[in-house]
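Workshop exercise sheet. Pairs work together: one partner reads the sequence aloud, the other fills in the structure field after running the prediction. Swap roles for the next sheet.
Pair: D.N. / O.F.
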Amino acid sequence: MRKSDEGNTTREIYFDQASSSFPKAPGVGKAMEEMLRRDAVNIGRGSYRSAYALLEQVMDARDHLLNLFHAPGDTALCYTAGATAALNQFIFGYLKPGDHVIVSSVEHNAVMRPLCEMQKRGVSVTIAECDRDGTLEPQKIEDAVRQETRAVICTHASNVCGTILPIAEIGEICRKRGLFFAVDAAQTAGILPIDMERMQIDFLAFPGHKGLRGPQGIGGFAVRKELEEQMTPLMFGGTGSRSDSEEQPDFLPDKFESGTLPLPAIIGLDAAVLQLTPERIAEIRRHECILSERFLRGITGLSGARAVGIADPARTGERVGVISLDFPSRDNALAAFALEQEGIFTRVGLHCAPRAHKTLRTFPQGTVRFSFGISNTEEEIDTALAAIKHILKE
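Structure field:
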């Protein structure tokens, strides 16, 4: 709560869950505090009881994530600073000059910027164009496959318009054509069921601080053995293992985890992941659909604001709780500022995804993005709709 210039109390509503979840899952802060207070040691280095106990916790945390993602038995879990670092590891660690890779046209810059650099090094890229609502026809992926194609990289859901892409169908194409399939689960991990085996995903990048509701600074990737064996680590150094050798270990997770891990963040993330049972994920998904439908119904027919992507309230099953609005008659940044003055926190701009905005026809003006989570309420949706109507009258 805060006070307005007139002295009235204004409720602050956080609708920027796609950037980072808030509040975090219950118990995350406590788990991190207890680890720092009682066992702030290192793992793989110290030969004493507390170090071994913490190592066991970290090993269990890896298994919890692999179970959450229904990873096949030959899959390993490696920690990184987040999904961006994970995607960089795949792109720079696997692709080589002369290779060809296919991506969708709604990818985040965590994919596009590394690929832009790789194009300078001799990797070719084909963009499978999504429709204006962010949907992608899987046949476009298959049509783009060439003899030198090595991989497909695809976001699970757009961080701009929330549209869910047909991951299972694309995975089937990749397996049939002998391609590795990398998925960016930045907007879906902890929100949608992810089954790496059924979806035939070889590399899954995830952040800990969004749908998983853990702390910032932690994320990672789940990678299948056949792919991992063909990847080169981006960072080399101490791992606490095979210290008699100056060569980087070739076994997992040490191969990709040089240096000290962010142990408090891992413990905090694990506290959040342990709460994500299949039933809980289904509950989160239902709640986001209810909020999205209510918001879209309130926007439908409203003059001066246009929902980007799948705007039909009856189709919320095809999207996550990320909804972008364009205010054609005004500057979107000013609209976002006006909303902030009424206590509605959103994100405005291009959301690190300029190609997605070109697909959605919102480049270069960007959009005002509302993103919902399990902590948001229908009352907050109604408050936001009232605020939008108010600023449109100004």
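Discussion prompt: The two ends are 24 Å apart (CA to CA). What would you look at next?
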